[in-house]
């Protein structure tokens, strides 16, 4: 694996995790707008800790 690929892989995983979380949020309160879902995903990932 090249150094470039090593950098791209975690980034791709991060965006996939955000997409999965957004998909989950869309199912929970179906009346949420796209903007509300995106804002909540941003908030969740901003406050995330390991």
List the topology elements.
Elements: H1 3-27, H2 34-47
Structural class: mainly alpha
Low-confidence stretches: none
Estimate the mean pLDDT confidence: 93
Strand-and-helix sequence, N→C? Answer: HH
Please bin the fraction of helical residues. Answer: over 70%
The backbone outline, from C-alpha atoms, is elongated
Radius of gyration: 13 Å
Alpha-carbon distance between the two ends: 26 Å
Task: Give a structural overview.
The chain is built from two helices and no strands. By secondary structure, the chain is mainly alpha-helical. Helix 1 crosses helix 2. The mean pLDDT is 93.
For the structure shown, list the relevant keywords:
single chain; 50 residues; 2 helices; mainly alpha; elongated
Gist?
By secondary structure, the protein is mainly α. The chain has helices at 3-27, 34-47. Helix 1 (3-27) packs across helix 2.
């Amino acid at each position: 694996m090249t150094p470039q690929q090593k950098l791209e892989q975690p980034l791709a995983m991060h965006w996939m995790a955000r997409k999965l979380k957004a998909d989950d949020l869309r199912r929970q309160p179906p009346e949420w707008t796209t903007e509300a879902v995106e804002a909540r995903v941003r908030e969740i990932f901003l406050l995330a800790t390991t």
